[in-house]
């Protein structure tokens, strides 16, 4: 067996294990440790496991992840997310499809405080699915708009995926996070536009809601302030360089605690709930992160990434076609793979290709996030849809997936815009310098 | 077997509380460090303390995550299979889980408590030894592995029950927690 | 054929694979000037009997764990960098990190070579191929530092062991931040000063945001190319000889030359690069001596540290000073 072949066998075993309902982290770690043992023996395996697990736990950059998760959990626990939704409902409820738009809008704002798409989907899903059911919205439209709104969680900063991507590619995490702002706003607008168009073509999907006075509207806006203040503190502080992204996350978590405290929305029980949820999420994320770095070492030993990269480099395809190829590869992978696992497994393979093509790595990070967003809402494995199904089981998984298809179009459009106008992502990070 | 359950659960609960305390300590430390630097009295070694806390947060969080069955897996295919086959796969799944956790535990036990030959590292500025935190890794994965072992036993027990009794399942065909 | 060569089965006429891990990125001068040419040389001189798999960017392991990784056979050749070996058997080399030990990279490397031969450095399963000193550390700051007093109260980045002691001794406020946050930290005032080598800033571009370069010339990064002993033992005798006599010394030499070459270029370029925003400040002998005097605290700390680790710190220092003298360098007092 050639080394590369062993690498391919390892990846196939990983997929097999994943589909046998073995936890993703273990599916990645098992072929990796067996492969390292087969290639290099116990001594190398034990040293590699020791240094890899240590290096990626004793790690300052990765602290950003639990801190941002904590921030989102505290805001949810403090009831800020349901207030966000009601603000948007008061403003847009009267329009046809207004509650779906409110879902997108409040998801976008919540995304500014949450680093995870799953958290954003779960949080907004609880509230807005109930409201849309009550208002007799079609299950497809409700489900689709919630999972689509959820995808904004990893595009609008903070973003766990961009942090991991920055680690893997040695790019500035601050620049990456800030690069997500404009595309995030653009995608939010396109999502809303998609809803407007859809309900215009098929008004049965969403009835018209009740109307509110201007006084009520203006008074509702105050609920957005808290999250915006937090966003300005965290992203503004990072943008101005008052603190590093990791520190920004810590300050954000502390800030959201203060907000909850000021608003008297926090008690011991609520605080405990937010903290235990953070520990739980950190646990499963880091199991995957640690496993993936062990897998990456195994793949490096097989030289598979280098071989694949040189295949790309020696091919006579134009950069545009290679880019298209990479995007399609991610869409296909995203259909069947968990996104965090997908990015840590593929980035070391794709990175050399991207470097040869001279693509900007900050820009590419944003593109990757958009493609991952598609993965999150596409069957058969679309984590956002699973999460929504988990918190709102009366929205059937089938209708969620059916509804989510529509929202892939604006994501594809955004990828296209980014390809032809990279400045959309790069303008803000460039002005930082 | 009940005593093994009890011991594991007690230690997992303890691990959870340590993890929670670490999370809160980390948030406070980072905030204090930012503020004190802004007013001209930086905390020396804030970075390395955060890193050490991170090790504790992750390692004590892993077994708690398992106890809540929150490690992500893909049930897409298996969820639709007959209960008996699911039961067999559950045993296999828990065995692989146990194997990997046990392996990492062994690695860190070897590297820490059984190791006296090489130098032990410490942090750059405050010279805090890494050793206790490496032991945390052994403890975290050890507890996780212990839970996997319990799952193996539970899965086998429920598999045996299945072949003697009617399956206990909900409408969607998922095995309910026994 | 293209069969797998398991490390342990490599013998006789088989091709032996050697995994080399460069913890620095592929764009770093160590990749172009050191590892790539060395790979070619090894494959050429061994007539292809040794195949070098070169990994850049720390693919096989980070610089924090080079020694352990190599001892455990995670890869076969690598370079232990800078301050990561305080707690290892490579500790004696940290003497080369002391402020004002070396006047330049060239002498530094020579002194380290002699020193390592005098002080027996035994590392389990590791062949130490030599020690290389980088070009010297200067201060890159947002405000001009013409004299020691100008450092008063400035926030100075510290990272390695004893850095905080030195920063305080110079009157600065030590701030610990990560390498990747340094650029922004300087730009936005999180810190005012960072020590770095001039060759190093060509990559990190700290001079863009900290355009005042004070030539304190006070320390070096020490790099120690190392080879796994179990890999070495697998080599047939003729190849062992080839590595001992030619290839391994060549790796050290390439490293040393790369720093000498890059440092000449960097020193020339830096004045131009900061010309419109800041300037390069050459300290007067009197001022430089003040910096030196206030640095001695780190020398004292080092001896204490060495003794605590079970070495004879005083005699190691005496040996080091003797070698410096032989090389025509006056150790600071
Ligand atoms: Na976000
Ligand atoms: Na998908």
UniProtKB/TrEMBL annotation, chain A:
Compartments reported by the entry: Cell inner membrane
Domain of life: Bacteria
Membrane topology category: Multi-pass membrane protein
Pfam (any one): DctM
Domain TRAP C4-dicarboxylate transport system permease DctM subunit: 12-423
UniProt keywords, alphabetically: Cell inner membrane, Cell membrane, Membrane, Transmembrane, Transmembrane helix
CC terms in the record's Gene Ontology section: plasma membrane
PANTHER family the record matches: C4-DICARBOXYLATE TRAP TRANSPORTER LARGE PERMEASE PROTEIN DCTM, SIALIC ACID TRAP TRANSPORTER PERMEASE PROTEIN SIAT-RELATED
Protein name: TRAP transporter, DctM subunit
Organism of origin: Thalassobacillus cyri
Automatic annotation (TrEMBL), chain B:
Pfam family, one: DctQ
Record has Ribosomal protein as a keyword: no
Membrane topology term: Multi-pass membrane protein
Keyword set, alphabetical order: Cell inner membrane, Cell membrane, Membrane, Transmembrane, Transmembrane helix, Transport
Subcellular location per the Swiss-Prot or TrEMBL entry: Cell inner membrane
Domain Tripartite ATP-independent periplasmic transporters DctQ component: 26-155
Primary location class: membrane
InterPro entries listed in its UniProt record: DctQ (IPR055348), TRAP_DctQ (IPR007387)
GO cellular component, one term: plasma membrane
Superkingdom of origin: Bacteria
Transmembrane segments: 12-35, 47-66, 87-111, 131-150
Family the entry assigns: Belongs to the TRAP transporter small permease family.
Name of the featured protein: TRAP-type C4-dicarboxylate transport system, small permease component
Organism: Thalassobacillus cyri
